[in-house]
Write a structure and sequence with these properties.
The chain has 191 residues and is mostly helical. Helix content is 34%, strand content 2%. The chain has a two-stranded antiparallel sheet. It is globular and about 50 Å long. It starts with 44 loop residues before the first helix and ends in a 27-residue tail after the last helix. Belongs to the plant homeotic and developmental regulators ALOG protein family. This is OLC1v1007014C1.
Length: 191
C-alpha cells in the first residue's frame, strides 16, 4: 500500500488537494506560535507553509507501514519522505549520459527525470526542523537535523549543480569592519 495515497499534488508548493485531517493525530497538530502579520490575527506565509508541510509529514507518518510515531521517526524516514517528494518535482535533472548534461538551458527536450529542486528541499527541511521543535520535539532528537539528511541535501545540491550547469554558491555575508579594539600602532614617541 502506498503510504502517500492521500496526497495528490505537490505537497511542498502547498497546492495540495489531499485528505489530510489535521486533528486526526497528535503528531499532526500545529503550534501556531510564530511570526504573525501586522494585523496579529493571520499567520504569515512562512507559518502557513510550515503548518502545511508539518501536516503533510504527519500524513506520511500516519500512512507509513508500519505506522510511525513522531518519537520513532529517524533521519532515514525523512530521507524516504524526500525521495517520495521527487515525483512531484518540476526541475529537469539531466543524467550523465544525456547530451544536455551540464547545460542550464538545453535546446531540445530530453527524457531526463523531473525532480524537486535542491532549494525547495532545503527550505522544506528548514521549515520541518522548526516545526518539529515547536511541536514538542527535543532539538537533539530532531530527525530533520540528522547528519544523513544534511549529507543527502549536499549530494542533491552537487548533483543538480553538475547536471544543470548551475553553481550553488553560498551567499557571502558582509563581514563587519574590524573594530579598533586591537592595540593601536605603537609610536616611538620621538618627534
Amino acid at each position: 500500500m502506498d503510504p502517500f495515497a492521500d496526497i495528490q499534488t505537490n505537497p511542498i508548493v502547498g497546492n495540495t488537494s489531499s485528505n489530510i485531517n489535521t486533528a486526526s493525530s497528535s503528531s499532526t497538530t500545529s503550534g501556531a506560535s510564530g511570526t504573525m502579520n501586522n494585523n496579529n490575527s493571520t499567520p504569515s506565509r512562512y507559518e502557513n507553509q510550515k503548518r502545511r508541510d508539518w501536516n503533510t509529514f504527519g500524513q506520511y507518518l500516519k500512512n507509513h507501514r508500519p505506522p510511525l510515531t513522531l518519537s520513532r521517526c529517524s533521519g532515514a524516514h525523512v530521507l524516504e519522505f524526500l525521495r517520495y517528494l521527487d515525483q512531484f518535482g518540476k526541475t529537469k535533472v539531466h543524467t550523465p549520459i544525456c547530451p544536455f548534461f551540464g547545460h542550464p538551458n538545453p535546446p531540445a527536450p530530453c527524457p531526463c527525470p523531473l525532480r524537486q529542486a535542491w532549494g525547495s528541499l532545503d527550505a522544506l527541511i528548514g521549515r520541518l526542523r522548526a516545526a518539529y521543535e515547536e511541536n514538542g520535539g527535543r532539538p537533539e532528537a530532531n530527525p530533520f537535523g540528522a547528519r544523513a539528511v544534511r549529507l543527502y541535501l549536499r549530494e542533491v545540491r552537487d548533483l543538480q549543480s553538475k547536471a544543470r550547469g548551475i553553481s550553488y554558491e553560498k551567499k557571502k555575508r558582509k563581514r563587519p569592519q574590524a573594530s579598533s579594539s586591537s592595540a593601536p600602532p605603537s609610536s616611538s614617541g620621538e618627534a
